[in-house]
Amino acid sequence: MKSAQYIGIFLVILGVIALAYQSFSYTTQEKAIDIGPLQVTTEHSHTIPIAPVIGITLLICGGGIVLMSFRKAT
Fold it and tell me: What pTM was computed for the model?
């Protein structure tokens, strides 16, 4: 396989993942109170949405790259 095919397959896989998981989230910890030996922390959950247009675009671009790499090979 050529490197273009690997890139195309990678983009297709990223597109499927982006469509399957519409968002991802992570948690951060912050100090709320820090008085001597007393420390209170709070956890904040952050969610980052992924638009379906991004997943569809990745699928189309990756598929196009794979098809064009096969076309050049023949």
Answer: 0.69
